[in-house]
Amino acid sequence: MEILSSSEVISKGVEFIGEVCFSGEYGEQVYTKEDYEGGVPIEGILYEKYENGNLAYYAFYHEGIPQGQRVRFYPSGRVKSYCIMDAGTVDGYYTEWYENGNIKCTKYCKYGLTIQMKEYDIQGNIAAEKKELKDSEKSIFEKRKRLYG
User: Fold this and answer.
1) Sequence ranges of the domains in the chain
2) Measuring CA to CA, which residue among 68, 88, 84 is closest to residue 24?
């Protein structure tokens, strides 16, 4: 897990501020400004900052949709979560931490579904666990696998 420095994100990215907005046909893509005003989908790094100036998150975007690394931070600057996105959904492992650095949650996701998950209390004890897809999710998973596979 390689996390970009704040200065690298700010120098290479676009801040979600001002005219940057959700736009596009279904309003789910992030654009430089409204598409009807000539805006284009974001390509590259998009980020937001807390009032204290620290990064709130950064994510890589392709054609206005999250695609690649997404990292969220606490206001203190500590990492809050890390995952890889594919077409706007978590693809693979997702990890979230408490601000003290202990793991809060780990997930394995595919096709927009959480396949496995463990949640931990602040002391590191397992508080909840999901080991496989629910029966109601299995048909959705198979349909998405055939569609996106």
Assistant:
1) 1-74, 88-148
2) 88
Please state the length of the chain.
Answer: 149
Residue showing tokens 């990215």: 13
Which pTM was predicted?
Answer: 0.90
DSSP 8-70: HHHHHSEES-TT-EEESTTS-EEESS-GGGT--B--EEEEEE-TTSSEEEEEEEETTEEEEEE
Distance CA 80, CA 96 (A): 6
Structure tokens belonging to residue 63: 């054609």
Q: How far apart are CA 65 and CA 29, in angstroms?
A: 5
Residue appearing with tokens 């999710």: 137
What pLDDT digit, counting tens, does each position of 25-79 carry? 888 899 999 999 999 999 999 999 999 999 999 999 999 999 999 999 999 999 9
CA distance 144 to 136: 14
